[in-house]
Amino acid sequence: MSDAALVRLVAERRPEALAELYDRFAPTLLALARRVLDNHADAEEVLQEVFVQVWNRGERYDPARSSVSTWLVLIARSRAIDRLRSRKVVERTHEATAQAAIGAMGAMGASGVWEPHTSPEALENVFIHERHERVRREMAALPAEQRQVLEMAFYQGMTQSEIAAKAGLPLGTVKTRTLLAMKKLRNALRPEIRQLL
Amino acid sequence: MSEEPTPEDRALLAALAALQPETVAPPSPAAPPSPAEHGAQEPGQPAPPGDAAEAETLTRLYHEVLGLMPFALAPASPPPEVRSRLMARLAGPELAGQEPAAAPSPAAAPAIAAPATLAAAAPSVAPAPVAAPSPATAAGRQDRFAPASQSRSASVPGRSGAPRWLSALAAALILALLGTCGWLLDDLRERRGAIVRLAAQRDAALRHAGEAEARLGRLTSQVGSLRDSFSVMTSPAVEVCNLRAATPEQADARGMLFVAADHQHWAMSLRGLQPPAGGKVYQLWFVADQGPVSGGTFAAQPGAPVELGSDRMPAGTKAVRITLENIPGSPAPGGPDVLRNADTLHSL
After folding, report:
1. Please, which residues have CB within 8 angstroms of residue B29's CB and are 6 or more apart in sequence?
2. Cβ of A195 under 8 Å from any chain B Cβ?
3. Adjacent-strand bridge partners of B321
4. pLDDT interval class at B54 (50, 70, 90)
5. How far apart are CA A98 and CA A113, in angstroms?
6. Residue from the list A32, A62, A66 with its beta carbon closest to the beta carbon of B63
7. Which of A2, A6, A14, A146 to mutate to test the interface with B (most CBs of B within 10 A)?
8. Contact B149, A47 (CB under 8 A)
9. Residue B148: what pLDDT?
């Protein structure tokens, strides 16, 4: 059953549909929340909030505006960043996350692949697993400086001006790197986007 | 960036800007907020309708690119209790007591501890209803990714503005539809091209496989023949007989005949034979008491040896001849001798 069909069933208050949606996307959303928050307990809370929101607002999902996957991801990201800010430790966490990102980039080495923290067997959906593989590969293929600005914007909720200030780069450079990274990803991930639309 | 941003750049920046809560423009009272409106257009600079549709499509694409980003992270399996807590929360009075957004189905009973299977649920899939916001969401913050229906319900203009608003909306929808159709057609063309390319690759692969199979068959046959010849040549008490050129035109021609002790199995290796011209063929003759008996016809390739062999030889064979015949399969030697045995065959 497609993701959109599941959301429609959720809108009809079908818990089994929400459970299926959870099984498909929870590992990705939890990884996202952990990356933003750097805290397992908070990330699990965010994960639960996301699905409660989906349960309450499933009827408002509009397939013309985004795929279910992107809808869920951006809800989770928004929730996680809200929580990050509410902890009033934004700067400290940004430092830690930036260090972790830089460390992770260094740890990528020649392979350019993130070391998994959990077993991929946890994923029940083979398509999502393949999507992970492909996106991971394409992200790793980006030049480190382009990937860095994109990740700072996405995972830390930073504006381009904030990124420029933090990285000590001209704003134009940040914009250029962001645009280049996004265009490369758009081209490289075209098959995945087709599947989503 | 000193250059003027392209429409694609603007669409891309709009998708990125939508990630920033503080830069998100409030929904327009006339239309639901589209991704392109989230920072894509400078205030006071309305985009032409065609550009707007294109920008919307591009923004949507980049929106999806952003949505894919977390898939680069290693997936993290949540502890089972997180799922249990969630399902219990849904079944509890706080959430389960809410009015369903659409007509409730039998499976929507409030107290479901464990989710049922979805196998029977597929046929009941219905279009997403446009419903009023639930009390919980009305009290909560405005979700930036909350879909258009929410904004539409909140942005119905007065009666006097309706026709204009409707016209603009219709035009925008048509343009968006056209843009999507164009994109789909482009996608279709790409897919058709890919199918044609793949079909050509498949045909070429099948052709190569057929050729390889035929080559393998020939090689297998040659290996079998060589194995038989080797078996005869190395058999005990094998008799060896040299063949020499019988005509000055083929002075380089030579050969060896190996006859096994059973006087039936034989092998012949020939070198230096010129390819026969004008439709002629070489023919092997065993000369026995009753006269020449044909051993078969064969051709020769430039510089390539000819290997012959069989498990039958006429009784009483005393000599062998190879002639060049005009007619393939002649009943008796008619052409000139090319090779003949130089040694006497004693005991055949």
Report:
1. B155, B157
2. no
3. B285, B340
4. confident
5. 18
6. A66
7. A14
8. no
9. 38
Size of interface A-B (CB pairs under 8 A): 276
Give the pLDDT score at B225.
82
| Residue located via tokens 């503080």 | B22
For the stretch A3-17, pLDDT in tens is 888 999 999 888 889
Who's near B249: CB < 8 A, 6+ residues apart? B274
Rounded Cα distance, A167 and A149, in Å: 9
Write out residues 19-38 of B within 8 Å (CB-CB) of A: 19-23, 34-35
The answer to whether B85 and A9 have CB atoms below 8 angstroms apart is no
| Nearest alpha-carbon partner for B307 in B239, B247, B244, B232 | B232
Paired tokens of A164: 């420029």
Tell me which residue of B255, B254, B260 sits closest to B233, measured CA to CA: B260
Closest partner CB to B129 (pick from A11, A129, A193): A11
Give the C-alpha separation, B267 to B29, whole Å: 98
On chain A, the residues whose CB falls within 8 A of the CB of B24 are none
Q: For chain A, say whether B151 makes contact (Cβ under 8 Å).
A: no
For B126, which residue in chain A has the nearest alpha carbon? A8
Q: Which of A178, A36, A179, A160 is nearest to A98 (CA)?
A: A36
Question: Could A77 and B19 be called an inter-chain contact, meaning their C-beta atoms sit closer than 8 Å?
Answer: yes
A145 shares contact with chain B (CB less than 8 Å): no
pLDDT band per the 50, 70, 90 thresholds, residue A142: very high
Which chain A residues are within 8 Å of B86, Cβ to Cβ?
A: 22, 48, 51-52
